[in-house]
Amino acid sequence: WALIATARLMAQSDFPADGTLRDDLIRHSRQVCESMLSEQVQSPEEPDRHGGFASDTRVTPTATRLEGLLAALRIFSPQDAIREYLLPSIVDGIGFLCRAQVPEGPNAGAVPRATRYAKGRTKADKAFNNRVKEVRIDYVQHALSAFLEFADLE
User: Fold this and answer.
1) Is the pLDDT of residue 71 over 70?
2) At what angle do helices 83-100 and 60-72 cross, to 10 degrees?
3) Is the CA virtual torsion 27, 31, 32, 34 positive or negative?
């Protein structure tokens, strides 16, 4: 939310083109982005995890982070070095979301809670596994928002 709000604030016509406030917002946005980027799963040999932002393969943490990272592209100037890290991360995250979608059947295109079952036998793992294929409107909404923002990239 901080990245989305910052991008919208800085896009206002009366927002100062330079100064301490702008510098502080850019610095904070960079810190948020760097924190998110450090959490991304880089595991090409595991396509059901690669590009996601939750080690347990939940989909919504990835979608919400992508919403923020996509908004961040409007915060940083085209020359800012962080963009070279943001773009590949966003592409990997969108790939994760695409692979997470239900591919066929009456729920084709839906976005489930997670892409893989927990392997443990604890009560928490069993509770997680009971909800892996669950589809809720917020899971779909966040993924759809990320897809739409990604489609609007120039």
Assistant:
1) yes
2) 150
3) positive
